[in-house]
């Protein structure tokens, strides 16, 4: 017994046992904290880059929830643009407002307008791109303005309407949208007069646009829709002034290089958060979800239930080109985080304005007798699908 007692009391072994007990205690506490943290936070961290994340926010299903959604009322948001104000323009079935995106295995954080405004205090958040990014910007403005007194919020137009800015006075925060559908200079840069089948881009020129988002604290980019028209001519204007018609993907890759080069040399990597929204799907062909070939999103009132549904209007090659450009930027120390909202939006054939919106061109008699012929199956009603995009953005910004 004395030998055993003597053995246990030897300093070397005592240190070993003591060290083991400390390590064991740390492991037990860490596991406990990890379990608690993963339940509250880690489960909502996206695994887009394939890292050791615990939840992919982009994989899941839509759940009907008329108790918690919508997050705001269309009628109470005076900043809704008429292209997406579906209820105002006669849409009676408002269940499109009651669907909540539910990721597999975790919960998407509920958007908190107060927390977001605090995050943006003394800052600028700028959406840059086409009308789908403007769609998301309108959603963001409606989400935020609901808690701001009328005297403390305003909207201003700059640069002939290309830049629209919502201001939250108390927070000194600016939530802006800048019209730049092809990212680089083009003949589509006018926010009103841009309906030209022959689109000319200056593939190497982005300064004209970039000066409007330079110095912003958060920038969200997109560009897909304006490249997807099969009958569209894309003409690249070379530095020597010569015009060359080029294939869509080649032009798209050229402008991504210009965009990435600008970010590499001009973005404050310590200050600015950068995001890129993936492709927003369309629902022009009802045969994709079991409908008739000559029908579309017109009169659709429920999401597509088939898991993994993918429409033929969504271009994987284009999304891959963006991933490649962002990957190269990451190697150079510039982080652009991707909000992959394509798959979750693919399910929402019911979420488009269809005929319930303001149309800026006169409809023909033939269109009026066949409503599906002019249904907008591109943009999204608000409240609706773009709110989920902003909930995803919210989750990323608070990581």
UniProtKB/TrEMBL annotation:
PANTHER family: PROTEIN TRICHOME BIREFRINGENCE-LIKE 34 (PTHR32285:SF11), PROTEIN TRICHOME BIREFRINGENCE-LIKE 9-RELATED (PTHR32285)
Subcellular location: Golgi apparatus membrane
Keyword Protein transport part of the UniProt annotation: no
All residue ranges annotated as the Trichome birefringence-like C-terminal domain in the record: 108-395
Domain Trichome birefringence-like N-terminal: 54-107
Pfam annotation, one family: PMR5N
Domain of life: Eukaryota
Signal peptide: none
One Gene Ontology MF term: xylan O-acetyltransferase activity
Family: Belongs to the PC-esterase family. TBL subfamily.
Major subcellular location class: Golgi
Organism lineage: Eukaryota, Viridiplantae, Streptophyta, Embryophyta, Tracheophyta
Keywords, in A-Z order: Golgi apparatus, Membrane, Signal-anchor, Transmembrane, Transmembrane helix
One GO location term (cellular component): Golgi membrane
Annotated TM spans: 16-34
Membrane topology qualifier: Single-pass type II membrane protein
Name assigned to this protein: Trichome birefringence-like N-terminal domain-containing protein
């Amino acid at each position: 017994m004395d030998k055993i007692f003597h053995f246990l009391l030897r300093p070397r072994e005592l240190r070993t046992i003591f060290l083991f007990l400390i390590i064991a205690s740390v492991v037990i506490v860490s596991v406990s904290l990890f379990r608690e943290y993963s339940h509250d936070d880690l489960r909502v961290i996206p695994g887009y880059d394939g890292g050791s994340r615990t939840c992919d926010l982009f994989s899941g299903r839509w759940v009907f929830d008329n108790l918690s959604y919508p997050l705001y009322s269309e009628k109470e948001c005076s900043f809704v643009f008429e292209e997406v104000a579906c209820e105002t323009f006669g849409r009676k079935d408002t269940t499109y407002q009651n669907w909540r995106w539910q990721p597999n295995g975790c919960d998407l954080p509920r958007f908190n307008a107060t927390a977001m405004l605090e995050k943006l205090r003394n800052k600028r958040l700028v959406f840059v791109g086409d009308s789908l990014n403007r769609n998301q910007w309108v959603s963001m403005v409606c989400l935020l303005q609901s808690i701001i007194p009328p005297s403390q919020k305003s909207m201003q137009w700059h640069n002939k309407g290309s830049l629209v800015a919502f201001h939250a006075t108390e927070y000194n925060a600016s939530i802006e949208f800048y019209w730049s559908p092809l990212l680089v200079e083009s003949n589509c840069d006018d926010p009103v007069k841009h309906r030209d089948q022959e689109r000319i881009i200056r593939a190497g020129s982005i300064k004209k646009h970039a000066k409007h988002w330079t110095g912003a604290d958060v920038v969200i980019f997109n560009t897909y829709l304006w490249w997807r028209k099969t009958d569209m001519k894309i003409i690249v204007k070379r530095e020597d002034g010569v015009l060359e018609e080029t294939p869509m993907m080649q032009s798209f890759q050229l402008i991504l290089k210009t965009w990435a080069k600008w970010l590499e040399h001009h973005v404050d990597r310590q200050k600015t958060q950068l995001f890129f929204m993936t492709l927003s799907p369309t629902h022009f062909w009802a045969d994709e979800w079991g409908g008739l070939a000559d029908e579309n999103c017109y009169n659709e009132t429920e999401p597509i239930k088939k898991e993994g549904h993918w429409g033929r209007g969504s271009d994987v090659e284009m999304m891959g080109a963006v991933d490649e450009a962002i990957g190269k930027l990451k190697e150079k120390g510039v982080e652009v985080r991707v909000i992959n909202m394509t798959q979750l939006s693919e399910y929402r054939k019911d979420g488009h304005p269809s005929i319930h919106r303001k149309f800026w061109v006169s409809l023909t008699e033939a269109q009026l007798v066949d409503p599906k012929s002019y249904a907008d199956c591109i943009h999204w009603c608000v409240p609706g699908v773009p709110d989920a995009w902003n909930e995803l953005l919210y989750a990323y910004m608070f990581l």
